[in-house]
């Protein structure tokens, strides 16, 4: 990666982190309705993968979707407006945190149904093949989601049809409040995917460079007609399953320790500054710019127009004729 690529990747990592930190603070004020699931801790996965993608490539996300949307280029202010339920939000305030989509960015949608993104992205990959498209499709699924049957049906179909499809498994070790050991028989998630007949590798999802290299290989293979791959990336989630989860299932020390030892941002910073590829001043300028972008996003969200009752049935059903 050259200097600009590295600076761009850092900018994206910082944007994802700050979006979640600000969402957390604002959520606690009670102004954002419903649930929200924060991606903090897992940013290197979304950014490491999406840095290889263009607007034409398609992704499908999960209930923990803010990071994927931002990594794919969705506008942070439009997303904040969406979280606030504003009619100026990316989905006119009708999607909220768990259903953000932006087709102009190839972001086909976050999806609250665990595992459901995998078969949808297989459809997007099949469309690429059938229409002579050049796009690849990527689905993000959590480790808990790998126990959903349709994920394996999707993997099988992608292998049979040799689709340009990448399955990214985000392994944070938890499915809500259940540790993976209580829910998953074979802890080797890459082996489970490989058993379906495709290349599958496991990487340290805290290490941006490891994710970026493995994703680059899988995406290049898909682009040259080499079929699907699976990438399993492990990284912690710093906060609870959803905002407000008291996390009685893990100790305060364990949580603090995750931040100390497994934070993708200090890891990235240490590497690029040690190598001399980016300077502390360049990184600080990015931090200041992202802080400004987030101030602006939150201010817009707070002031954004709210729906009126008569809007409720607008944009709910698609018209085909
Ligand atoms: C089909 C389905 N089953 C159960 C749920 C409830 N649910 C929401 S998130 C979640 C845990 C998902 O864990 P994982 O896939 O590992 O993702 P993570 O939350 O760790 O990012 C569950 C069980 C759901 N939304 N959809």
Please sum up the structure shown.
With 321 residues, the chain is α/β, with parallel strands linked by helices. It contains eleven helices and seven strands.
Please render the helix and strand layout as text.
Layout: H1 3-27, H2 43-50, E1 58-60, H3 66-71, H4 76-83, H5 117-130, E2 137-142, H6 149-160, E3 165-171, E4 174-175, E5 178-179, H7 189-194, E6 200-204, H8 208-223, E7 229-234, H9 252-261, H10 264-275, H11 280-303
Parallel strand pairs: 1-2, 2-3, 3-7, 6-7
Antiparallel strand pairs: 4-5
Residues 63-64, 112-114, 142-145, 172, 174-176, 241 line the site of thiamine diphosphate.
Task: Report on the architecture of this protein.
With 321 residues, the protein is α/β, with parallel strands linked by helices. It has one domain (3-300): Thiamin diphosphate (ThDP)-binding fold, Pyr/PP domains (Rossmann fold). The protein is 44% helix and 10% strand. It has eleven helices and seven strands. The strands form two sheets. Strands 1-2-3-7-6 form a five-stranded parallel sheet, sandwiched between helices. Strands 4-5 form a two-stranded antiparallel ribbon. Helix 8 (208-223) links the parallel strand 6 (200-204) and strand 7 (229-234). Helix 5 runs parallel beside helix 6 (149-160). The longest helix has 25 residues, at 3-27. It is globular and about 50 Å long. The model has no long low-confidence stretch (mean pLDDT 96). Thiamine diphosphate is lined by residues 63-64, 112-114, 142-145, 172, 174-176, 241.
């Amino acid at each position: 990666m050259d200097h600009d690529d590295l600076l761009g990747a850092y900018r994206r990592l910082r944007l994802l982190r700050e979006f979640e930190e600000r969402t957390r603070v604002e959520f606690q004020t009670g102004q954002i309705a419903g649930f929200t699931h924060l991606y903090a801790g897992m940013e290197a996965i979304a950014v490491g993968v999406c840095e290889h993608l263009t607007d034409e490539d398609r992704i499908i996300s999960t209930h923990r979707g803010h990071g994927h949307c931002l990594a794919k280029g969705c506008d942070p202010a439009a997303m904040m407006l969406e979280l606030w339920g504003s009619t100026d939000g990316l989905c006119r305030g009708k999607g909220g945190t768990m259903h953000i989509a932006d087709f102009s960015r190839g972001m086909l949608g976050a999806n609250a149904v665990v595992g459901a993104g995998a078969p949808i992205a297989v459809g997007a990959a099949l469309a690429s093949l059938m229409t002579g498209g050049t796009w690849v499709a990527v689905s993000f699924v959590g480790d808990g989601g790998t126990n959903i049957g349709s994920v394996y049906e999707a993997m099988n179909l992608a292998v049979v049809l040799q689709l340009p499809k990448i399955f990214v498994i985000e392994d944070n070790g938890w499915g809500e409040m259940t540790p993976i050991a209580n829910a998953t028989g074979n802890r080797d998630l890459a082996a489970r995917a490989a058993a379906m007949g495709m290349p599958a590798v496991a990487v340290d999802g805290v290490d941006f460079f490891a994710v970026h290299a493995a994703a680059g290989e899988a995406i290049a293979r898909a682009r040259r007609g080499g079929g699907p791959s699976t990438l399993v990336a492990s990284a912690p989630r710093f906060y609870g399953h959803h905002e407000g989860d008291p996390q009685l299932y893990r100790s305060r020390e364990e949580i603090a320790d995750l931040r100390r030892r497994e934070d993708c941002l200090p890891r990235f910073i240490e590497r690029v500054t040690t190598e001399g590829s980016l300077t502390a001043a360049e990184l600080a300028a990015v931090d200041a710019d992202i802080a400004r972008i987030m101030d602006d996003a939150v201010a817009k969200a707070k002031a954004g127009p709210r729906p009126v009752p008569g809007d409720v049935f607008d944009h709910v059903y698609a018209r085909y004729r």
